[in-house]
Amino acid sequence: MPSDTAVEPGTLLVAAPSLLDSNFRRTVVYVIDHRGEGTLGVVLNRPSEVAVDDVLPTWGPHVSQPGSVFVGGPVDQKTALCLAAMRTGEDASGINGLIGVRGPVALVDLDADPDALVPKFRGMRVFAGYAGWDVGQLSGEIDRGDWIVVPALPNDVLAPAEEDLWGRVLRRQGMPLALLATHPSDVRDN
């Protein structure tokens, strides 16, 4: 069985401490799509210095704090993706401009009218670029030990930029995974 069988929309890929690639070191990737053609997700914990107001002025006032664009991944960084956490009782299915990912998390069409959609959200975040894997590529990286696959919580997509999301996600997994959260970002500090 392929090692990516636990991967599905709405799961997290948490970078293992041994993953030193500068694009993914200590990242938490939210999986948006996973199927036969490959996998697509966004890095949740890489805020940029660019304000959403500067690139998407109609959406800027509505994004969760900080009001910056997050670096979603190394692929196609001129593409903007947006994730929203729906308010309790709201459902993305059947709403123009939204594609449900899992539970209360939806992908937002940034060409849609914000005034029609924003009242349904309790928060939203914009990402420049994405993380993508071809068929079999993610499975190979999981086999190599680069990624830990864990369930996501809806609040993960809105985690404050100053919070250590990587450590928080690992700590809530229980032992032995929780111990990885104590891994220093630079082993020379150990």
What features would you describe in this structure?
This protein is mainly beta and about 190 residues long. It has a single domain (about 10-185), classed as VC0467-like (3-Layer(aba) Sandwich), CATH 3.40.1740.10. The chain is about 10% helix and about 35% strand. It contains 4 helices and 10 strands; from the N terminus they run ββββαββββαβαβα. Strands 1, 2, 3, 4, 5, 6, 7, 8, 9 and 10 form a 10-stranded mixed β-sheet that branches. Strand 7 (about 100) and strand 8 form a beta hairpin. The longest helix is centred in the last third of the chain and has 8 residues, at about 135-145. The chain is globular.
CATH homologous superfamily (4th level) name: VC0467-like
Q: Please write the string of helix (H) and strand (E) elements.
A: EEEEHEEEEHEHEH
Mean pLDDT: 92
How many strand segments?
A: 10
Structural class: mainly beta
Shape: globular
How many helical elements? 4
Task: Predict the CATH topology.
Answer: VC0467-like
Tally of distinct domains:
1
CATH class: Alpha Beta
List low-confidence stretches. Answer: none
What share of residues is helical? 10-25%
How would the blueprint of this fold be written?
Layout: E1 11-15, E2 28-35, E3 38-43, E4 47-51, H1 52-55, E5 68-71, E6 75-86, E7 98-102, E8 105-108, H2 114-117, E9 121-133, H3 137-144, E10 147-151, H4 165-171
Parallel strand pairs: 5-9
Antiparallel strand pairs: 1-2, 1-10, 2-3, 3-9, 4-5, 6-8, 6-9, 7-8
